[in-house]
Structure formats: structure tokens, C-alpha cells
TrEMBL record:
Gene3D superfamilies: Cytochrome P450. PANTHER family: P450, PUTATIVE (EUROFUNG)-RELATED, P450, PUTATIVE (EUROFUNG)-RELATED-RELATED. Keywords: Heme, Iron, Metal-binding, Monooxygenase, Oxidoreductase, Signal. Pfam families: p450 (PF00067). It comes from Lentinula aciculospora. This is Cytochrome P450. Belongs to the cytochrome P450 family. SUPFAM superfamilies: Cytochrome P450.
Length: 500
């Protein structure tokens, strides 16, 4: 713990006593609390809050209530609770938490992912849904397939760096699809985007800044450390959003722009300042939101394969049978690859990219199953708990793709939870599905993945909002000379095409 934290908590408790009456609401069950601090700090975060909340389910049930420092948090531990509140009562539960620092000071409240539920959100969302519909994203299949071939080539050349290659590849897909930029021009954007997303994901953890609890702190002078941090964040985010937008705009004017979400969105409206601003932020949001969850999923897959070589073999046999060894798999092959699809589903179930979803906030008080949920409560869908729901046949913590092919004992499809819920359900899901599927099936076709030669591979995932494996070792070996040759040919062919 930082040495300043106890002091800050003390100051902040005094301020709360002076300025804010203690809220007398703790109607839904939750761990015992102490005055002012409440029970929020009872959660041991060293292993991931989602696992703690999932264990607490046995004691407290489907909804668990935390409070303290003037903040209320409700954790939803079952698909039923999530559907009842986030879907059926979407009018109340579609807001996001208010982040004074990330939202107001850094400017992220202009982003589709954080805009308060209301008219402006609806306008953004309408445009995003058009640009990312299941039909619209079909035209990016070739780009996605080309970039998968490039990924395989990069891993072939330097398998030890697979982690970096997967990250870069996922970022390139979003970059190409969002703005239509080629691989050669985008690396400066990608490096910048990665740095910015690190700032964004830490700043949007509820309670990341004391100022989020005590908004009046935003009036503190510029030299205060967190104000400096906020100013730096704003600069990084503005650059992330502005720079590619200016470039694509000039390409559109000069007629050199290729197919992209940017081109689609520009074609939808007039050119006025308000519309420009909206499009700029929608594109920036897609770009920011799209890469990390995609590579988190692919890296989780690689780890699962290293741990379960027998499942890997089964998936590869299916690909050899259906696709053959004379060509590379395409997105169009996926419907004919049921086992590979089950592996992808199992990856998203085994370690969902957003184990606690993306938090919501309630806009009204509401009584659910006899428990009062106050206005302004931060609501977290515990996707991990839903994904780990035990059933009579399969251990929820084991990696068993077969569970999705069992006609007797059914398992909830991750499509029902991995991409969120209700009105703020992930608009990028079709694009993401294609990216993840083609990357995974191309990797399966090209490589055998083994655990490291002389050490145990233990799953170890980051505890951030987006959870992915911490850097790990594994051996990635080409399956055959033919498979490698095919990939190199394909990669060379798509670079020649210089479309990407
Ligand atoms: C495997 C990849 C992905 C996963 C697992 C994923 C998952 C999610 C989840 C759980 C949410 C929160 C939804 C909620 O509040 O209930 C979300 C929101 C969002 N996602 Fe994704 N996502 C992925 C890829 C993408 C891609 C590729 C894009 C864009 C091109 C994208 C754009 C967005 C946006 C803009 C939001 C905010 C929507 C809103 O607040 O209205 N995502 N995503
Ligand atoms: C939190 O959990 C970890 C792992 O389960 C344990 O090692 C640690 O002692 C716990 N910390 C506290 C304060 O209980
Ligand atoms: C919440 O959902 C229930 C069940 O669908 C419905 O009866 C109720 O009217 C909803 N309340 C609000 C405020 O949306
Ligand atoms: C997981 O990673 C953290 C830090 O990166 C490390 O301290 C911890 O020991 C690792 N856990 C396991 C089980 O390897
Ligand atoms: C490799 O490719 C060549 C030419 O396409 C083919 O004749 C040969 O049978 C392939 N080898 C294997 C092991 O698939």
C-alpha cells in the first residue's frame, strides 16, 4: 500500500463526515461493514475481484451489495440477475459510472463507451451499429485474412515474440478497418494507442482516483500530481482521436481512401462541425476499444492450446479434413468447423476478456427481489461468475470445448455474456468474431503449440478491466513445410497487393 493512502483515507473520511451524510442503504446482502469506509475495502484484490465475488456467491447469492465513501456498488452474479436488470430494466441500468478524472478532465465522456445514456449516446450508437453491422463487416474479411497471414509469417520468423506479434496484429486489424490505413503507416499510431489505452484502462477502474469520490477536487491547481496525470491523459487521448481522423479526412478529400468504417460514416451525413466531432469520437472509440479485447482472446487461446495439446490436435485434424493442406483457412470456412468453433467459445468462457464487464450506473432507485438498489449505484455484471456456472457434467474451470457440442447437458453460449448486455451490448461483436476466428484457425492450421520445454506453464492472467495472460513462454513450431510455404506465399501476396 502506498504510504500516503491511510492519510488520504483519513482526510477523505473527515471530509465525508463534514459534507455528506452517511447513506442508510444496505438492503441487498453483502459483507459486514464499518462506518464510512463501508465494506468496499473488504475485497481482497490480489487474485482478481471477479473470483472473490464468485466465491462470495455461495454466501450472499446472485446480487451482492458493497458501499463506502459515498459509493454504492452492486455485483450481479448470475445471468438471470443481469438479464432482469441490465436487459429488462435497461431504461434504468444503461448509464456508465461518472468518472470525474477519466471522463470530465481527460475528455473520455465524449466516447461512445462512456457517454451518459441519452440522446447523444443514441446518435453515436446508431452510427456505430450501421458501420459495424453483420452485413457491413463482411467487406473487411479479406483484410482480416491477409493480416492473419502476416501474423503467422511474423510468428514463423520469430516465434519467441508471439506475444508482441498478436498484439500488433489485433491493433492492425482495427486500424485498417477503422481508418483504412496500410500496415506501413500505422505503427506510430499503434504505439501511441497502446500507451493511451493503458492510461484509459487504469483511469476507468471505479475509484481509480480519490477525485472520483470527491469531485470538488477537480478544482485543485494544475501542479497537483493527479491533475498533471489528467492533463497528460487528455493530451494522449486527444492525439489518439485527432491524428488518424485528420489523415483519413484528407485521404477522403483527395479520393485515395479505401473501404473503412470512416468512409462509411462520412457517407452517412453532411459535413458540419457537430457531425465531424461525433464521427471523430466514434472512430476513436472503436479504435481504442477494439484491439485489446481481441488480442486478449487470442493470447488466452494460445495459452489454452499449450496447456491442452490433445484439444489442439483434434481442432487441427478437423481443419486438415475440411480445409485440406493445400490452402489457408478463411472466415467462410468457419461454419464447417464445429470443433474449432467450440474451441473459440471455450476460450471466451474459460477466461472472458472482460471478467467484470464494463460497469453501469443506475439512474433511479429500484427494488429488485425485495432489495432496494439506490439511484447512482455502480452495477458490475460478473461475467466470470456466469462463465463459471457449474453444471452436472463438466468442471467449469477445465478447458473442455466438447461441452459446447453436448446435446444432453447444455452450456450457455458465451455470445450471451462475453460481449455485454442489453442496450450497451458490444457493437463490435461481428467484427471481433471474425478477427478472433480467423486468427485462431490460421494459427491452428500453421503451428503446433507446446508448453515450454523445461518449466511448468501456469495460467496467470492480468487483473485489469481487460484480462489477458501475462507474458508467458511456449514453443510454437510450424506443423509442416507445406503449411509454412502456404502462409509465406499468402503473406507476400497480400503485401504486394499493398492494399493493406
Ligand atoms: C473479442 C473482442 C471483444 C470483446 C470480448 C468485447 C466486449 C465488450 C463488452 C463486454 C462491452 C461492454 C458492454 C456492456 O456494457 O454491457 C463492450 C463495449 C463496447 N465495445 Fe466491445 N468487445 C470486443 C471487441 C470490440 C471491437 C472490435 C470493437 C469495435 C470495432 C468494440 C467496440 C465496443 C464499443 C464502442 C463498446 C461501448 C458500447 C456502449 O457503451 O454503448 N468492441 N465490448
Ligand atoms: C489475499 O489473497 C491472497 C491469495 O488468495 C492471499 O495470499 C493474501 O494473504 C490475501 N490478503 C489478505 C489481506 O487477506
Ligand atoms: C423492470 O422490469 C420488470 C420486469 O420486466 C418490469 O415489470 C418493470 O416495469 C421494469 N421497471 C422499469 C422501471 O423499467
Ligand atoms: C503471476 O504473476 C505475478 C506478477 O507478474 C507474480 O507475482 C505471481 O507469482 C504469478 N503467479 C503465478 C501462479 O505464477
Ligand atoms: C506438399 O505440397 C505439395 C505440392 O502442393 C504436395 O504435392 C505434397 O503432397 C504436400 N505434402 C504434404 C505432406 O502434404
Amino acid at each position: 500500500m502506498h504510504p500516503l493512502i491511510p492519510g488520504l483515507l483519513f482526510v477523505c473520511s473527515i471530509l465525508l463526515i463534514l459534507f455528506r451524510p452517511k447513506q442508510k442503504v444496505s438492503c441487498a446482502p453483502g459483507p459486514p461493514s464499518i462506518p464510512i469506509i463501508g465494506n468496499i475495502f473488504r475485497v481482497n484484490l490480489t487474485e482478481g475481484a471477479w473470483k472473490v465475488f464468485t466465491r462470495m456467491k455461495a454466501q450472499y447469492g446472485d446480487i451482492i451489495f458493497f458501499h463506502g465513501l459515498g459509493t454504492n456498488i452492486l455485483v450481479l452474479n448470475s445471468l438471470k440477475a443481469v438479464n432482469d436488470l441490465l436487459e429488462k430494466n435497461g431504461t434504468i441500468y444503461s448509464h456508465r459510472p461518472v468518472f470525474t478524472v477519466a471522463g470530465e478532465l481527460m475528455g473520455l465522456d465524449q466516447s461512445l463507451a462512456l457517454i451518459p445514456y441519452g440522446k447523444e449516446w443514441r446518435e453515436h450508437r446508431k452510427l456505430a451499429n450501421i458501420a459495424l453491422s453483420s452485413v457491413s463487416v463482411q467487406k473487411y474479411r479479406t483484410v482480416q485474412e491477409d493480416l492473419s497471414a502476416l501474423l503467422i509469417r511474423d510468428i514463423l520468423i520469430n516465434p519467441g515474440d508471439f506475444f508482441k506479434h498478436v498484439r500488433l496484429s489485433a491493433a492492425r486489424v482495427v486500424m485498417s478497418v477503422t481508418y483504412g490505413f496500410s500496415v506501413d503507416t500505422d505503427d506510430k499510431y499503434i504505439t501511441h494507442a497502446e500507451k493511451t489505452m493503458e492510461i484509459v484502462t487504469t483511469a476507468t477502474v471505479p475509484g481509480a482516483f480519490l477525485c472520483d469520490f470527491l469531485p470538488f477536487m477537480k478544482h485543485l491547481p494544475k501542479w497537483v500530481p493527479f491533475m498533471k496525470e489528467a492533463a497528460h491523459g487528455k493530451f494522449m487521448i486527444d492525439t489518439l482521436v485527432d491524428r488518424p481522423f485528420e489523415q483519413v479526412k484528407s485521404e477522403l478529400v483527395s479520393g485515395t481512401a479505401v473501404d473503412s468504417l470512416a468512409r462509411d460514416l462520412f457517407s452517412l451525413g453532411g459535413s458540419n462541425v457537430e457531425f465531424d466531432h461525433r464521427i471523430k469520437w466514434i472512430l476513436g472509440t472503436m479504435y481504442g476499444a477494439g484491439g485489446e479485447a481481441t488480442y486478449a482472446t487470442v493470447l488466452t487461446f494460445i495459452m489454452a492450446m499449450a496447456l491442452h495439446t490433445e484439444k489442439q490436435k483434434k481442432a487441427q485434424e478437423e481443419i486438415d479434413l475440411v480445409v485440406g493442406t493445400e490452402r489457408v483457412p478463411t472466415i467462410a470456412d468457419l461454419p464447417n468447423l464445429p470443433y474449432v468453433k467450440a474451441v473459440i467459445k471455450e476460450t471466451m468462457r474459460w477466461n472472458p476478456a472482460f471478467p467484470l464487464g464494463v460497469a453501469r450506473r443506475s439512474s433511479e432507485g429500484y427494488v429488485y427481489e425485495g432489495h432496494f438498489i439506490p439511484k447512482g449505484t455502480i452495477v458490475m455484471p460478473n461475467i466470470w461468475a456466469i462463465a463459471s456456472e457449474p453444471n452436472s457434467k463438466y468442471d467449469p474451470r477445465e478447458f473442455i470445448p466438447e461441452r459446447f457440442m453436448d446435446s444432453l447437458v447444455s452450456t450457455i453460449d458465451p455470445a450471451a455474456y462475453a460481449f455485454g448486455f442489453g442496450r450497451r451490448y458490444c457493437p463490435g461483436r461481428f467484427l471481433a468474431d471474425n478477427s478472433v476466428s480467423i486468427m485462431i484457425s490460421t494459427i491452428l492450421a500453421a503451428f503446433d503449440i507446446f508448453p515450454p520445454a523445461n518449466q511448468n506453464l501456469k495460467p496467470n492472467f492480468s487483473l485489469n478491466m481487460i484480462s489477458y495472460p501475462k507474458p508467458f513462454d511456449c514453443r510454437i513450431v510450424p506443423r509442416s513445410e507445406n503449411a509454412s510455404r502456404l502462409i509465406i506465399q499468402r503473406a507476400a501476396h497480400c503485401q504486394e497487393n499493398s492494399k493493406i
